[in-house]
Amino acid sequence: MAALHHYFPILTWGRSYSRVTFADDLLAAVIVTIMLIPQSLAYAMLAGLPPEVGLYASILPLAAYAVFGTSRTLAVGPVAVVSLMTASAVGEVAAAGTADYLTAAIVLALLSGAILLVMGILRLGFLANFLSHPVISGFITASGLLIAIGQFGTILGVPVRGDTLPEIGTALFANAQAINVPTLVLGVLTLGFLYAIRLRLKAMLMRLGLGSRPADMIAKAGPVFAILVTVVAVKLLDLGARGIALVGEIPQGLPVPGWPVIDLGVVQALFVPALLISLIGFVESISVAQTLASKRRQRIVPDQELIGLGAANIASGLSAGYPVTGGFARSVVNFDAGAQTPAAGLFTALGIALATLFLTPFLADLPRATLAATIIVAVLSLVDFGALWRLWAYSRTDFAAMAATIIGTLLLGVEPGVVLGVVLSLVLHLHRTSRPHIAIVGNVEGTEHFRNVDRHQVQTVPHVLTVRVDESLYFANSRFLEDRIAELVAERPALRHVILMCSAVNAIDSSALESLEEINQRLKDSGIRLHLSEVKGPVMDRLRTTQFLAHLTGGVHLSQFAAMRATD
Amino acid sequence: MAALHHYFPILTWGRSYSRVTFADDLLAAVIVTIMLIPQSLAYAMLAGLPPEVGLYASILPLAAYAVFGTSRTLAVGPVAVVSLMTASAVGEVAAAGTADYLTAAIVLALLSGAILLVMGILRLGFLANFLSHPVISGFITASGLLIAIGQFGTILGVPVRGDTLPEIGTALFANAQAINVPTLVLGVLTLGFLYAIRLRLKAMLMRLGLGSRPADMIAKAGPVFAILVTVVAVKLLDLGARGIALVGEIPQGLPVPGWPVIDLGVVQALFVPALLISLIGFVESISVAQTLASKRRQRIVPDQELIGLGAANIASGLSAGYPVTGGFARSVVNFDAGAQTPAAGLFTALGIALATLFLTPFLADLPRATLAATIIVAVLSLVDFGALWRLWAYSRTDFAAMAATIIGTLLLGVEPGVVLGVVLSLVLHLHRTSRPHIAIVGNVEGTEHFRNVDRHQVQTVPHVLTVRVDESLYFANSRFLEDRIAELVAERPALRHVILMCSAVNAIDSSALESLEEINQRLKDSGIRLHLSEVKGPVMDRLRTTQFLAHLTGGVHLSQFAAMRATD
């Protein structure tokens, strides 16, 4: 039973569901639905898919997450970065606009769902931790730029395809003479309108006496106003005839659940992209879910979140949708609007289903440039070059990881970019720990304290050398320690004792143990005894299972002070 | 000038060269030369190359290392594992016995030399640290097995080719009916003879009154006796006519220095193998060099060693040789025989040059089975399954890395095997540090000490939670910390303060810093203050460059005791 409740969180919150929470959830769902309609159409367009696919990806996936997810307020559905990654991945295996392209997107959702499910069941959520903040931050900034520049083409009336900055740039310049002026005017006006709403509307509404929260909600519905206004403009001024690209006929009605015809070659080609989409989507989703949950002291279970997102993606694939994850902006709106339980997600799904049934005829006259403008405004808020300078101040290695991810993503595309960032941040981390800080320490006169000889006025004696290693000892730094000690010993002809102060050593792996044996043996050959001091309990427990302590020429001392007295 | 001496260690030791060291070096060189002649022929055969290539690889490379190397006693030349790796790599791009095969081996030496040189100049020696002891140990054990089984074919008179255990095994069984009985008899007798010498000769000689060291030297020359005896037997009994494969005509004379015709496709195909050969060769070489140097309190400079080995490999490639490195057994003999300076290497090179000029006619009648027997005896001493059980007792992860490397190398071949081992050991290391030990600590009554509540009888209060993280905080574990704290907080409704005890935190990267900001913010949203205690100096220096301390809701306390008092 406990296991059932673990895997189906709906059994826990569903039991105590009340009329009050129903009202709260319903209000939040209405607001999120209004926000999600334009977003789902826009992100589907960004993914190179027909607009209805965005709507389909906003119905069943939300219901699936409501059953399996542990966040009370996460709003699942299409998001910008995952849509860009979808376009990049699917564009490799099929031509845009074909039935194969759509099928590949569906397969990608199923594959990504399966990967997330398996990761959740096998508790592999820790894999997502290898995406460091600088890499994610750099990736999102670069993706935001790629998306904005690509959508800029739609606003110029010259939609461009391309996975990298050079490709998109070349396509833009090559088609520069094809710019459609009415589209450009409409696009720029919409952009200006959206920015004005974003920057001014909330303050205006508050001056009119509205509270901060409702004012914020209304301001966030800016894209809806833009859609209403431009659709009406298209109808009144017959802008379609002036060359403004419209969304066009959207099939009315709910998606027909079904299983796509799966080509094994496509699955193989999409596996790595699906893995990256899963990891990036999971990291984005869990981070907003954690932030919101902690505001109400609720708990997120990361491995169950993987299952929730996996179920959502499988539901998306089974209902002709494409990969989804938890979106940042929508989740915050859902939370602020008062959503109490995942039922809000169920009601949002219902809202989108109703929109799919009844609203689609109205959307046929929607200019694509309007959607492009909403995307640009949304993604430019993701671009954060300021993070680069903050990182520069704090850590050059983290700066390098973020800069490499940005440059890699812009020049090579989303997948190579993120892989480059992950590999580089791992290598830099290993490089750092492979050259740990090793201090020579001496006694602070009159005390039992020992400090770095380079930083403090301390006493040392020529026949004893004490080194403190500020890092766990493992294979990547064990040889460094050997080299460093050999070097220090070679400089000190009077040396008779070496004390290794282990207060900062949290672990010693077998490579490091062999290095210690080696160091002990070499020192012995030179007539020098090796001592350890301040070894931590768990490390000592491990050492006791080996022959090392029997071979050790010196002693193991509880404190550095005791070690010094033993070498007198 | 200092730089010149750094890059040319010969300028340092050469200046103080004396007649006494000359005599010592010369004696050592004579002994090593006697040992090296059969080894160089045997390892060339193992690499699938004509025997003279082994001799060529034992002349100029030794001279080059004597100029650039920092070890006084390292004996450079062909070694077993690198020869196996050469056979595997070159076998991928050319058919054994062809001129292309020889050229590819030469290109491999040049490539490996260039990689080592570049690594030395860019100080990338730390890359070798990513080969953990379990991986190297597993790789050498598996290589030893592969070599021994392959050479067993030569002893049966059915030489087999193959890079993996299944391939070699299949080839052996497929050719089982082709066994040549005279070869088998000769091979088994030689094996028995070599083992008898290895196990008994030293003790026998010592009983006859010889000192331990000369007795050891003579015992190590066992292969030379085997060669003498079997060549004489071949001549007397005309064994060549009985189907015993002989080494055959060896071109008399020194190698003609030259630059091979280099095919870019071959270079590309050999790059990764050359990198692996460089790393494995370097690790093996540096480890014996360090061990020997420390016995005389001398210093090895790892980055300069890369340059020394790089120069040796380039010299090998320029003189029709194949990849070389510092050999364990020969270096120990060189050291024990009294070598004082790298001049011993120069004299050994001279010795091999003389052998190439005058000894080769005699070696034409050498049975290949004799060489195979010497290889088997040499490599079986590399096989160390005992290490597996020692690792099992100390660390399951290290055991897994070694076992995977052995199995991977046996089943997939040398390159995939070592890559698998490296990747697995990195993943296991990251996995371990991604789930650090996090202890809840309490006060030991009446003291200022704080200990794990699970291990000790300590006091805690319900409104304060103190956690101690036993690991540096970085991207792979920062989210784990977030999750763990969120979990602990959700269980404690009375909580008002969280203290993070940082005594074991050696570094905080920017991802972890963002996580701390996140934790601080979330705790603030829940009305809980976050404090830090016992932050190390360098970590605190870093934190001072950020806004984190300004945002921190609680304080930073010098000791955990002070932190507890501040939360009263």
SSE topology sketch:
The structure is a homodimer of 568-residue chains.
Chain A (H helix, E strand, L loop, with lengths): L1 H6 L2 H6 L3 H28 L4 H6 L3 H9 L7 E2 L2 H14 L5 H23 L11 H24 L8 H10 L6 H27 L4 H9 L1 H16 L26 H32 L6 H17 L6 E2 L1 H9 L6 H16 L1 H4 L4 H13 L5 H9 L1 H17 L1 H21 L3 E6 L6 E3 L11 E6 L5 H16 L6 E5 L8 H16 L3 E5 L3 H8 L3 H4 L4 E2 L2 H7 L2
Parallel strand pairs in A: 5-6, 6-7, 7-8
Antiparallel strand pairs in A: 1-2, 3-4, 3-5
Helix pairs in contact in A: 3-15, 3-16, 3-18, 5-14, 5-16, 6-7, 6-13, 7-13, 7-14, 8-9, 8-18, 8-20, 8-21, 10-11, 10-12, 10-18, 13-15, 19-20, 20-21, 21-22, 22-23
Tell me what the structure shows.
Chains A, B: This is Sulfate permease. Chains A, B: Keywords: Membrane, Transmembrane, Transmembrane helix. The structure is a homodimer of 568-residue chains. The first copy, chain A, is elongated and about 95 Å long. In chain A, α3 (19-46) crosses α16 (343-358). The longest helix of chain A has 32 residues, at 264-295. With 568 residues, the first copy, chain A, is mainly alpha-helical. In chain A, strands 4-3-5-6-7-8 form a six-stranded mixed beta sheet. A two-stranded antiparallel sheet of chain A has the order 1-2. Chain A contains 26 helices and eight strands. In chain A, 65% of the residues lie in helices and 5% in strands. The model of chain A has no long low-confidence stretch (mean pLDDT 89). The first copy, chain A, has two domains: 2-11 and 20-424, no CATH class; 438-566, Transcription Regulator spoIIAA (2-Layer Sandwich), CATH 3.30.750.24. Chains A and B meet through α8, α13, α19, α21 and α22 of A and α13, α19, α21, α22 and α23 of B.
